[in-house]
Amino acid sequence: MFAARGIAVSFSVFLLVYCALSLAVCFTWRKAWLYCQKHPVRRIADLLFALRMSPLITAAVITAAFTVPSFLLLEPRAIDEPMGEIPLALGICGALLGIFGALNATLAVRRASRTISMWTNQAQPVETCLPVPVLRIPRALPAMTAAGIVRPKVLMSGVAEFLLTANELQTALNHEVAHVRRRDNLKKLLLRFVPFPGMDGLETAWLEATEMAADDAAVSNAGEALDLAAALIKLSRLGQVEAVDLTAALVHSPASAMNARVERLVAWTDERRVPPQKHSPWYGVGAALATIAVFAVTYSQLLVRVHTATEWLVK
Q1: Nearest alpha-carbon partner for 244 in 133, 123, 145
Q2: Contact 56, 20 (CB under 8 A)
Q3: I need a labelling partner for 311 at 20 to 30 A (CA). Which of 54, 133, 168, 174 fits?
Q4: How many CB atoms are closer than 10 A to CB 110?
Q5: Cis ω on the peptide bond leading into residue 142 (within 30° of 0)?
Q6: What is the mean pLDDT of residues 14-28?
Q7: What are 209-230's pLDDT values in tens digits?
Q8: Cβ atoms 144, 128 nearer than 8 A
Q9: SS3 for 83?
Q10: Tens digits of per-residue pLDDT, 165-192?
């Protein structure tokens, strides 16, 4: 009974924190997105992804670092308390949320694996200087896409290779390599673990920002920007492949998003390319040590307060 009560309380706290923070993100992400419009688009993409993942990470940390230890250390094992209906229902819902997230991610991996296997049937390797393998596929669509997480690769159709000039092809390949370096397919998999109604707008904004961030990473001057814009226009005329889980196709966005990307590239200025700022790792180490010190001093008091809150929840 003690173990069952502890599991129910832990899942209940996780569910309550996750849902509360997810609702807060649903109502505030647009303001944060508008506030950061003047920043480089890669930072906007990172911010949106951090906002989307913050409910899961925060709920997991609170549950693992506070709820479980407070229950194990402060809950009497000899008392046989009946489990209330509310914590039992919340615990079941929390467990179902975790199961649904894991199942959703597993299905996404299976769908992506099946589709990529179909695309790469009879594919041929292409010799390039890129840090990831490039495969030429016999299909016209997808024209170009980054696929895979553990062993990422870039798939390129023979039609795209024929249509694009050498410079256009290189910038298009650089765009896909940028997706691989930013681990965008892994991030898409992580999003499958955090289902929540009303997050479609945030996830769409993040996807558009990742495409623009990859555009910026692929070009270094106005000439390359025009080459990538020309590649987007040419390949978009071939048609757009339906969105496939855990892949990053060069051309897959809605028409409005594609037009925005082309307009950004045509209006490229060298001032837009902001060199990555190098921050000293000591700042992060200092902040981490300060946080650990604060929690070390107040941890016991926090456990008592968390246990009091969970006792109220159980009753």
Answers
A1: 145
A2: no
A3: 54
A4: 11
A5: yes
A6: 93
A7: 999 999 999 998 999 999 999 9
A8: no
A9: coil
A10: 999 999 999 999 999 999 999 999 999 9
Residue 146 DSSP symbol: E
Q: Is the Cα dihedral 53, 56, 60, 61 positive or negative?
A: positive
Provide the token pair at 180: 């691989």
Measured CA to CA, the distance from residue 90 to residue 115 in angstroms comes to 37
- The two tokens of residue 66 are 């506070």
Rounded distance between C-alpha atoms, residue 135 and residue 204, angstroms = 28
As a whole number of angstroms, the distance between CA 231 and CA 222 comes to: 14
Q: Please, which residues bridge with residue 137 across strands? A: 157
Q: How many CB atoms lie within 10 A of CB 149?
A: 16
Residue 51 pLDDT class (50, 70, 90 cuts): very high
156, 137 contact by CB (below 8 A): yes
Q: Are strands 134-137 and 144-147 parallel, antiparallel or unpaired?
A: unpaired
Q: Which of 105, 151, 102 is nearest to 131 (CA)?
A: 151
CA atoms 175, 181, 185, 190: torsion sign = negative
Q: Is the dihedral of CA 302, 306, 311, 312 positive or negative?
A: positive
Nearest to 205 by CA among 276, 260, 281: 260
Per the model's pLDDT, the better-predicted residue between 88 and 27 turns out to be 27
Residue 273 has pLDDT above 60, yes or no: no
Element (H, E) at 270: none
* Tokens 């506030």, residue located: 35
